[in-house]
Backbone:
């Protein structure tokens, strides 16, 4: 279940996340990357930032998003530049679309990730499939 | 970094196997902050009708780009990366789940100095990611 009325809704900017060298190494190791230097973030690291924005949607009573019925449909990261250690990142999520498909809902989020100078670093685009009650 | 002029569409630029165990899932949960119990608890996975504990889709996505990062000379050269999650990767408690990742040149844009790398990630003979594509700046 998800409330279709959240389509177009923008959520507030998150508080800054300081990207640490050891965190990048930990993430690189967890994704089995062989060349982690702790300086440049692996390409899927922005999921950690997206998650902070997504939490706002999950805790928003208006969204009525039932996380126990959620499956990750697709994910994309478009980079203006790579994330590096020392970055202070904030993010802002908007609900791009809510669609119905065969008893399920598809919700697409755009999360823009900014650095400390307010420059766009990366846009994370994520579609969640919310399974219907009988699916 | 590879020379863009030496590449052709269809070239296989990386082919690597990865073993995913329950340990890998716990490690990824900690690193990413995704503690959904369907990724480490059999009882929870079963209660929501899953065939078993599943690898995080984002773990499969993250693993799959690694060989491309190595080939491209660093993560800073990956400018766009997207996938669809089409099939789950079931990770049993004992044996590891074996993933095969193959990266092929799908498109070359010499003017922009970019190539599209298409990823095929296979588990038990099925591809688990759809439309898995990365644009790489060379």
Residues:
């Amino acid at each position: 279940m998800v409330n279709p009325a959240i389509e177009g809704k923008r959520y507030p900017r998150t508080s800054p996340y300081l990207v640490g060298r050891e965190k990048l190494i930990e993430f690189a190791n967890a994704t089995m990357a062989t060349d982690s230097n702790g300086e440049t973030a692996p390409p899927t690291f922005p999921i950690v930032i997206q998650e902070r924005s997504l939490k706002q949607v999950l805790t928003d009573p208006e969204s009525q998003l039932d996380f126990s019925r959620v499956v990750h449909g697709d994910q994309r990261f478009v980079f203006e530049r790579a994330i590096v250690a020392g970055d202070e990142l904030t993010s802002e999520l908007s609900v791009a679309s809510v669609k119905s498909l065969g008893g399920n809902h598809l919700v697409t989020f755009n999360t823009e990730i900014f650095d400390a100078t307010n420059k766009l670093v990366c846009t994370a685009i994520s579609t969640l499939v919310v399974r219907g009650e009988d699916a | 970094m590879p020379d863009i002029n030496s590449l052709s569409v269809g070239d296989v630029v990386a082919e690597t196997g990865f073993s995913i165990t329950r340990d890998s899932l716990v490690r990824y949960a900690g690193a990413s902050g995704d503690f959904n119990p369907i990724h480490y608890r059999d009882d929870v996975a079963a209660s929501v009708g899953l065939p078993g504990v599943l690898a995080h889709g984002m773990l499969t996505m993250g693993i799959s780009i690694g060989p491309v990062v190595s080939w491209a000379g660093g993560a800073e050269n990956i400018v766009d990366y997207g996938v669809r999650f089409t099939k789950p990767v079931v990770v049993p408690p004992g044996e590891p789940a074996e993933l095969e990742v193959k990266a092929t040149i799908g498109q070359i844009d010499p003017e922009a100095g970019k190539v599209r790398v298409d990823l095929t990630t296979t588990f038990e003979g099925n591809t688990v990611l759809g439309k898995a594509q990365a644009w790489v700046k060379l």
Summary: Chain A touches chain B at residues 23, 26-27, 29-35, 40-44, 47-48, 51, 68, 71-79, 81-82, 125 (CB under 8 Å).
